[in-house]
UniProtKB/TrEMBL annotation:
Belongs to the L6 tetraspanin family. It is found in: Membrane. This is Transmembrane 4 L6 family member 19. It comes from Galemys pyrenaicus (Iberian desman). GO terms for cellular component: membrane. The chain crosses the membrane at residues 54-73, 85-112, 164-190. It comes from the Eukaryota.
Length: 202
């Protein structure tokens, strides 16, 4: 049981740290090139504005991490809790963290697929007129994938500058962080199950 508690402490701390990183990465996406004017003008993409890294991979995972840490340290109401109560709390905290991490993972994947929200030169096929507008230029690009074709990164999006690099860097970070969170949640569930089994054997 002591090994299970120690593992819960480490997992709680690790999940809490990833939650802070997820929230930070999502917040940075609201300020492309560290410029607040895009947010004030409403020129931020819907995936970043959704804030899944803040409330999903951030707040929900951090809440679960706090519960897991309290269980590990046997603090407060967990100091004399039985194995069934501990298992129920472990299931609830795992479910909360898993749900938040999955939301962040899915949103980040869709964001990488759609590409950044930026100003680009839109050529109308009807009358071949050119116009500058804000949208997702890579969303309906069927012939080429911007993630693999780096020649598009500096030639399509005109504003913000380096919009593609900013978008890909931080949404890729969110994708990796949420994947790590899912992995840690699975370990926590296995650890809790083993802890319950050991306590029943005792």
């Amino acid at each position: 049981m002591a090994c299970s508690w120690t593992c819960s402490r480490i997992l709680g701390l690790s999940l809490g740290t990833t939650a802070l990183f997820a929230a930070g990465a999502n917040m940075v996406l609201l300020f492309p090139n560290w410029d607040v004017t895009y947010l004030l003008r409403g020129l931020i993409g819907k995936h970043a504005m959704l804030g899944s890294g803040v409330w999903g991979g951030g707040l929900m995972v951090f809440t679960a991490a706090t519960l897991i840490s309290l269980m590990g340290w046997r603090y407060g109401c967990f100091s004399k809790s039985g194995p069934c109560i501990s298992m129920l709390t472990a299931l609830l905290s795992s479910g909360l963290a898993l749900f938040g991490a999955l939301i962040c993972f899915i949103t980040s994947g869709v964001a990488l697929k759609d590409g950044p929200f930026c100003m680009f030169n839109d050529v109308s096929s009807f009358n071949q007129t050119q116009a500058w507008k804000y949208d997702y230029p890579f969303k309906d690009l069927h012939n080429r994938n911007y993630l693999y074709d780096h020649s598009l990164w500096n030639s399509v999006c005109l504003e913000p500058s380096k919009a593609v690099i900013w978008h890909v860097s931080f949404f890729s970070s969110l994708l990796c962080i949420s994947l790590l969170q899912i992995f840690l949640v699975v370990i926590h569930f296995i650890n809790s199950f083993l802890g319950l089994f050991c306590s029943l054997c005792e």
